Amino acid sequence: MEAYRDQYATIFNNGRGIVLLGISADADTTLAAWARESSFQFLLGSDTNGVVGTSYGAFDPARRMDDRSLYVIDQEGKVAYAARPFRVLSAASYKELEDVLDRIAPLPADSSG
Fold first, then answer.
1. Are 74 and 104 in contact (CB under 8 A)?
2. Helix (H) or strand (E) holding 72
3. What is the β-pairing status of strands 65-66 and 59-60?
4. Is 2-104 a CATH 3.40.30.10 domain?
5. Do the beta carbons of residue 50 and residue 64 sit within 8 Å?
């Protein structure tokens, strides 16, 4: 998640109107402490029973944890992009993600002219 934090302003922010939500099988108290310590600018959701992860095919019931899947949900509520797994240390992964976001949620036109 630190890589997401470090890329946040470039990829997710800047007027796109995108909500970034990280979902994990960790307890809410664990996620809250981690978010505070790491200064995350986005939301974290706890899915300790794996319901959300299972519905997206990201939860491994044997290990009771999610994989590092990333899904972009468009304004109609449909999956516009899926990376299974998302390679958080790969610059190419972030470029591909940014390209998808440019397509579905383009940055506002620069009005500084």
1. yes
2. strand 70-73
3. antiparallel
4. yes
5. yes
